[in-house]
From TrEMBL:
InterPro entries on file: MFS, MFS_dom, MFS_trans_sf
Origin superkingdom: Eukaryota
A GO cellular-component term linked to this record: membrane
Annotated Polar residues bias: 38-53
The name this protein goes by in its record: Major facilitator superfamily (MFS) profile domain-containing protein
Subcellular location: Membrane
Membrane topology: Multi-pass membrane protein
Keyword DNA-binding in record: no
C-alpha cells in the first residue's frame, strides 16, 4: 500500500502513548474532510475572520499575551460573579420560602448545584458546536442567553423557580470554551503563568459577586436612596438587586469580549461532515480522549477535588447563617458575603505569586496533594469553629481566619488540575475540546452534588442535641469526603514519569489502525 500522504516522511520517530497510537492521520481523515474553503453563507451561520493566533509575535513566547487573554479573563470574571452571587443569600432566601428546617441545606445545595448539572449536560454539545462553527460565536451566543438566568434568580418566589433559573444559567458555555481558548492561546512555555492568572480571574469574580450578594440584599431601609434604600420595588424583591447588578456586569464583559476576543479556531478548520458520521466520530473522539495517557486518572482526581471543595463551600454557606444553638455561627448575610469575598481576595493575591513557585519547587502533582491536605485541614476546624461560636466568640473569628487561609491553599488545586489536563493534550490538539468537555462534566458533577450532599447532611445534624454523634455527623462526613482525593492524587505519576507517558518509539513500517471498525494499513 502507498504511504499515507499526510505522514511526514522526514520524521523517524513519532510520539504516541503506549502500546498503540491514539491519534493517527487516518483518524484525522475519519473526522474531517480535507481542508477546503467553506462558504460562510451555507456552512457557517456565524462567519468569523481567519485566526491570527499562530502569526502572533508572542505565540511561542514565555510572556503572557495580555491582549489575547484579557477578553477571556473578563468573561471568566462575569461567569464567576453570576455563579457566586447567590451563595451569601441562598440560605436566607430559601428560609423565606417557609421550607422545613431539615430541608433548608438540601434545597440550598440543589439551588447552588443546579447550574452545574445543566453545564455538564451541555458541555459536549458546546465543544462540538465550537469545533464546527468556531469558538467565539458559540461563546458569545451561549453566554448572552445564559446570563438572563442570573437576573431572574433574584425574582424567585419558590424553590422550584430558583432552581429553574439557576439551571438556565448553567447553559453558559464559558466553563468549557474559556479553558479551550486559554489552552490554545498558551504554549508549554507560558502555560503555567497563564493558568496562574486564569484561576484568580474567577476568584476576582467570586469576590465581587459574593460581596455584592451580601451587601445589596435587603436594600430597603438599609442602603442609601441611590442604591434602592427607599424603593418599594426592592422591598418587595429583597434579593433582586444583587442579581440585577451582576447581570449588568456580565453584559459589559460580553460586549468587551465581543470586541476584542480573537477566534482561535475559525470555522474553516472545523468539522464539516454529515450528522450521522459526526455522531459516530464524536463518540470515537471521546473514546480516544479517555485513552490519552493519564487523562482518565486526572479526570477522576479532578472530580474528587471538585466534590471535596464544593461540599465544604456548600456547608460553609449554611452553617455560617444557622443559629448558634443549632450548630451554626449565627452570622448575618452581609458578614457571610464579606467572608466569601475575603477568601477570594486572599486567593487573588497569593495565587499568581505562589502557584508558579509551588509548581517549580514541588511539581503540579505534589502541589495538588498539598491543596487536598488543606481541605482536610478546613474540615478538621469545623467543630472547633462551632465550639468557639458558643464559648469564645473572639476565638471563632481566629478559626475563620485560619479557615480562610486553608481554603485559599485548597483553591490552588483547581489550576493544578487544569494544567495537568491541558498538558495531557499537548500532542493531541484535535482532542483538546473533547477532553476539556469531559473534564468539565466530571468537575460539574462534583460541584453539583457536593453542596447538596453537604448541605443536607448539615441540616439533618442540626436536629440532634449538642455533643451527640448526630450533631458531629456533618464534619465527619466532610472528613470522609476530603480524605480519598488525597490518596487518589498519589496514584498520579511524578512530573518526570508524567512526561515519559508519551513514549518515543520508532515509526513502524507497517501498522494496522482501527478506524470506525475498519482496518487500514499505514506505512
Amino acid at each position: 500500500m502507498q504511504p499515507h500522504p499526510n505522514i511526514h516522511q522526514q520524521d523517524t520517530h513519532h510520539r504516541h502513548p503506549s502500546p498503540s497510537p491514539i491519534i493517527t492521520e487516518a483518524f484525522h481523515d475519519a473526522i474531517r474532510l480535507p481542508d477546503t474553503p467553506i462558504t460562510p453563507s451555507t456552512s457557517n451561520p456565524f462567519p468569523e475572520p481567519q485566526s491570527q493566533l499562530h502569526s502572533h509575535p508572542h505565540s511561542h513566547s514565555s510572556d503572557i499575551p495580555w491582549k489575547l487573554i484579557l477578553p477571556i479573563l473578563f468573561l471568566r470574571f462575569g461567569d464567576a460573579m453570576s455563579y457566586e452571587v447567590i451563595f451569601p443569600i441562598v440560605t436566607d432566601m430559601i428560609t423565606s420560602f417557609q421550607v422545613a428546617p431539615d430541608k433548608i441545606g438540601l434545597w440550598a445545595g440543589m439551588a447552588e448545584g443546579a447550574l452545574m448539572i445543566t453545564e455538564a449536560l451541555c458541555a459536549t454539545t458546546w465543544a462540538r458546536l465550537a469545533d464546527k462553527y468556531g469558538r467565539k460565536p458559540c461563546l458569545m451566543a451561549g453566554f448572552m442567553f445564559a446570563i438572563s438566568g442570573t437576573g431572574l434568580v433574584g425574582f424567585s418566589t419558590s424553590v422550584g423557580k430558583l432552581i429553574l433559573w439557576r439551571a438556565i444559567l448553567g447553559m453558559n458555555p464559558c466553563g468549557v470554551l474559556n479553558k479551550i481558548i486559554a489552552s490554545e492561546i498558551s504554549n508549554p512555555v507560558n502555560r503555567d503563568k497563564i493558568f496562574a492568572i486564569f484561576s484568580p480571574a474567577f476568584a476576582t469574580g467570586t469576590m465581587i459577586g459574593t460581596l455584592i450578594g451580601g451587601e445589596l440584599a435587603h436594600p430597603y431601609g438599609r442602603l442609601p436612596h441611590l442604591l434602592g434604600g427607599s424603593s418599594e420595588f426592592w422591598k418587595e424583591w429583597p434579593y433582586a438587586l444583587p442579581c440585577v447588578v451582576t447581570t449588568g456586569v456580565a453584559i459589559i464583559a460580553l460586549v468587551v469580549s465581543y470586541v476584542y476576543l480573537i477566534e482561535t479556531r475559525p470555522p474553516s478548520h472545523s468539522l464539516q461532515i454529515h450528522t450521522t458520521a459526526e455522531k459516530n466520530d464524536h463518540h470515537r473522539a471521546i473514546s480516544a480522549a479517555l485513552k490519552v495517557p493519564h487523562f482518565a486518572l486526572i479526570t477522576i482526581v479532578f472530580l474528587s477535588y471538585q466534590l471535596t471543595s464544593f461540599s465544604i463551600e456548600g456547608i460553609f454557606a449554611v452553617y455560617t447563617y444557622t443559629d448558634v444553638d443549632l450548630g451554626g455561627l449565627g452570622l448575618s448575610v452581609d458578614i457571610i458575603g464579606f467572608l466569601y469575598a475575603a477568601a477570594a481576595f486572599s486567593y487573588i493575591i497569593t495565587a499568581p505569586l505562589l502557584l508558579p513557585i509551588m509548581k517549580k519547587r514541588f511539581g503540579a502533582v505534589k502541589s495538588l496533594q498539598i491543596a487536598f491536605l488543606a481541605w482536610v485541614g478546613v474540615t478538621m476546624t469545623l467543630p472547633l469553629s462551632q465550639w468557639t461560636a458558643i464559648h469564645w466568640r473572639g476565638g471563632m473569628w481566629l478559626v475563620l481566619i485560619c479557615q480562610t487561609g486553608l481554603r485559599c491553599v485548597g483553591g490552588f488545586g483547581w489550576p493544578m488540575c487544569d494544567i495537568l489536563t491541558m498538558s495531557a493534550f499537548d500532542d493531541y490538539p484535535e482532542l483538546l475540546a473533547t477532553g476539556s468537555a469531559i473534564s468539565l462534566i466530571a468537575g460539574a458533577f462534583g460541584r453539583a452534588f457536593g453542596p447538596a450532599i453537604s448541605g443536607w447532611i448539615y441540616s439533618l445534624s442540626t436536629q440532634h442535641p449538642v455533643g451527640s454523634l448526630g450533631r458531629q455527623s456533618s464534619w465527619l462526613a466532610m472528613l470522609a469526603i476530603s480524605l480519598p482525593p488525597f490518596f487518589l492524587s498519589r496514584l498520579l505519576p511524578s512530573e518526570k514519569k508524567y512526561k515519559e507517558g508519551y513514549e518515543t518509539v520508532p515509526l513502524d513500517e507497517e501498522s494496522d489502525v482501527d478506524v470506525g471498525g475498519e482496518s487500514e494499513e499505514v506505512v
